[in-house]
Amino acid sequence: MNNSNITKIITHSGTFHADDVFACATLSILLNGNVEFIRTRDEEIIKTGEYVVDVGGIYDANKNLFDHHQKEGAGEHPNGIPYASFGLVWKKFGEELCGSKEIAEKIDESIAQAIDAEDSGIEISKSLFENISHYSFDRTFGLFVPTWKESEHGEKNVDDEFIKVVHFAKDIIQREIIRRQHKKEAEKYIIEAYEHATDKRIVELKRYLPWKSALEDLEEPLFVISPREQDKWQIEANRIKGEVFKRRKYFPESWAGLQNEKLAEVTGVADAIFCHRDRFIVVAGSREGVLRLAQLAVEN
User: Fold this and answer.
1) Which of 4, 51, 148, 298 is the most buried (most CB within 10 A)?
2) Helix 85-98 and helix 158-196: axis angle, to 10°?
3) Beta 65-66 vs 59-60: how paired, if at all?
4) Which residues contact 147 (CB under 8 A, 6 or more apart)?
5) What's the whole-model pTM score?
């Protein structure tokens, strides 16, 4: 590789966090991996960086300086969460990487703001159970920071481990972008299926697509039908908007947890296979069978 094409990205030395890891990963994607990471707190070396992340005491997006540790900080997200270095880098380059302002904003909401909040000491959720909490990116990446014993014996080098987790973060960002791009593309097929449905309460898809957000603003859809593996078909209950688990309508209580012959006997559908005990999904062996189950659920 021609060294003249390599861009220097400078970040701080020592322990790393999700904030600086994701910021560096974003820049590496932007620059097609033609980067050299320099981890230092030496002010003279910092001045030589073409991009400076999470160190240096200056935020100036025009000069690609992305620190947030200065006394005045580096501003806040619209909801009040302080910007950390990942949010600052994503704010400038997210749309360019995603090819879509909408997708960039979704990733900002789903990843960047949570990382910025944790890095800034802002609590965004509380555990309902003592000593139980979500396993965050910061905690995950922290596993790769060498322990005192590994450092003492020279078994691991913190800079080498930093590079490992940056590559991991790159994969996460790229998968987020791809999945959200494909999800956005799927919306037109989902809306077409809704528009062509004879009964708007039952939407049938020709293949499984990520349909939940596409249908949440429509009042009628109660159930969504789609094929699944091994020539089987499923019907899933639509969620109440803003809820993760609550559904607009559930399958009958008498179906809950039943399988095969028992479910077929209760429903009268010969190839009925399975109903989840929480009554939000049912599986049948044919399209005709699952359509009949959907009709029964609507009428119930």
Assistant:
1) 51
2) 50
3) antiparallel
4) none
5) 0.86
